[in-house]
Amino acid sequence: MDIPFLIATAIKIGVFLGVTLTFVSVCVIFERRFSAIIQDRVGPNRTMIPLSILGFKKDVALPIGGLTQPMADGLKFILKEDFTPDYVRKFFFWLAPCMTMVPALVTMAVVPFGSPMEIGGQIIPMAVADLNVGPLFIFAIASLSVYGITLAGWSSNSKYPFFGGVRSCAQMISYEIALGLSIVPILMFFETLNLGHIIEYQVNNGWLLLPLWGEGLSFHRVLLMIPLGISFFIFTTSIFAETNRMPFDLPECETELVGGYHTEYSSMKFALFFLGEYAAMIIGSALIVTLFFGGWSIGFGLDNLLPIGAWWVSLLHIGVFLTKVTLFCLFFILVRWTIPRFRYDQLMNLGWIVFFEAALINVIIMALMLAYPYQPVASGIGAVLLIIATVVLIKIAKSVLQKPNALGSV
Amino acid sequence: MDTFLFYLFSAIAVVGAICLVSFRNPVASALSMVLSFVGLAALFIGLNAFFVGIVQILVYAGAIMVLFIFIIMLLDLNSEEKVAFKSGTLAAGIILPLLLIVQVLGVVQDGPDDDAFDEITPATLEKSAESFVRLDQAGEPLPEKDQSAIYRSLTHPKTPKLPDTNLLGRTIFQSFNFPLQIMGVLLLVATIGVVVLSKRTTKKANS
To answer: Which of B64, B78, B97, B154 has the least C-beta neighbours within 10 A?
Structure first.
């Protein structure tokens, strides 16, 4: 455990935490402005520094078009009264917001923000922890954030928050399965779980969903786009469900549950749930970008022309990565303001009957495709069996979906 | 540093386990079990078994304990808080862990010594890669892209890593493939059992 390593890690933790938190507040303003554009409104665009309350003649408007709004929002949350109802279970009531926020931030530790930097002959990877189990680490820690929401609902000791908490618990467990299975074909393709190595492969051989250079131009890769595309679809949709975003935001569905699991929360404790949700959205986008769209790579073979290791290249790559993540965050926002909320039974059917089985079949498709060059006969037989199994599964799924549920809508 | 972290996470695991049995509130007990699992996972990671450690969190802390808490909350098990310990269960709860400690001490006494293991550095990783290299017919190593994922991870030019996941998979699927299949069947039996049992109750509820 050498001192330079510790210093570098401390700096990286500080910087990436700062970047993520800034990104969260920027995402909030993006969400408000973007939704305003969709609904033909203006949105918050002229938040000023209120010097007039100090006796000055005029408020000062900075020419950054509403980017001061997050600051005002944050200040509002801090200054609000932090009211804790009498009937709550105090310890868990306080614990819950932390358990939502902390996992969302910890998952950021394994994501490579940029290409490795070379300082004084030492190669410093631009991830806080360059682990060998990157995606699994993110899933594991993110799965802990379900405790926050569930505990918030339970400790509020009030009916609607409890419903919200239980709903989110069921929802997140269900979609974790689809999420975990949908990523298996990708890992089979990369043969590694190290996010740094995964990006490096994509730098040289084409992004997973954009194989236009290096070895990516082969017919084999084009064929592999089928299972990988299915993976991408299931993965992205499951991320929506995992982060409790529209169209899957049943835990905080206002029309049925008042405010959901955070009904009893106010002030900064509520803000932590709010921030945790956005942080989860950002980490989801970062994971999609890293696995499917080359992470920090500029693409088209341009990265290898740059002197990788120089500090400005690392900064450029961090910029590229953040741009890609921003684009995906905008996609998340676009979906939220376009698609109406699902019904709860539809959500569960989609997770358990459609996505779970589709992801399972997808894993086998990928395995057969990868095995074909080595064992053509065996994988041919496997393909026939898979088609039969798929037909049977679709038949069963259809009959289950049509049958009215004995227990009502839940 | 490593020793300090070992003691820190061992303490977390032990404190979690003690809280688990001493708390009266079922939700608090379940959460302390999560704490214990997280400490245990950190110990695995400290042994470079990243995959085992992460799966410990993913499966036990992230899925199984969530289900426990889900059920505790739904059933609202408040009556548990008033139940007093019986002296018989208390005695069993003390004697069994003591036996376990004796066994652990026995294992520790003739365990392997520390010198048998190399520290993980790029050099030692490179050295261990020699046993995973694939050769062509002339006895020369094959080009980089035809090598196994384990070899490529061990000899990565910039950031060589111990591919613990790949090594684990290799061990399970090559050396212990048959026991794995048996375990799969066992789990399938359990799953079918659950379906059968829950089907029966639904029918009763309908009639």
So the answer is: B78
Amino acid at B57: I
Q: Identify which of A262, A185, A271, A267 has the alpha carbon closest to the alpha carbon of residue A228.
A: A185
The secondary structure of B21-37 as a DSSP string is: HH-SSHHHHHHHHHHHH
Look at residue A387 and tell me if it is in a domain.
no
Partners of B2 on chain A (C-beta within 8 Å) are 1
Q: How far out from the chain centre does Cα B171 lie?
A: 16
d(CA B41, CA B51): 10
Complex ipTM = 0.80
> How long a stretch of residues is chain A?
410
Within-domain flag for A144 = yes
- The tokens of A274 are what? 């709010």
Which residues are within 8 A (CB) of A30 and not within 5 positions of it... i.e. 6 or more apart? A326, A329, A330, A333
A410 confidence band (pLDDT: 50, 70, 90)? very low
Domain presence at residue A198? yes
Where do the structural domains in chain B lie, given as residue ranges?
Answer: 1-82, 122-162
- The minimum CA-CA distance between B99 and chain A, rounded to whole Å, is 33
**Environment class of residue B20 by beta-carbon count within 10 Å: exposed (0-12), middle (13-18) or buried (19+)?**
middle
Instruction: Provide the phi-psi class of A300: left if phi over 0, else alpha when psi is between -120 and 50, else beta.
Output: left
- Name the pTM for this structure: 0.85
Q: What fold characterizes domain B1-82?
A: Four Helix Bundle (Hemerythrin (Met), subunit A) (1.20.120)
Q: Which residues of A touch B50 (CB under 8 A)?
A: 131-133
Beta carbons within 8 Å of A217's beta carbon, 6+ residues apart: A206, A211
pLDDT digit string (tens) for B162-188?
Answer: 788 888 888 888 889 999 999 999 999
In chain A, how many domains are there? 1
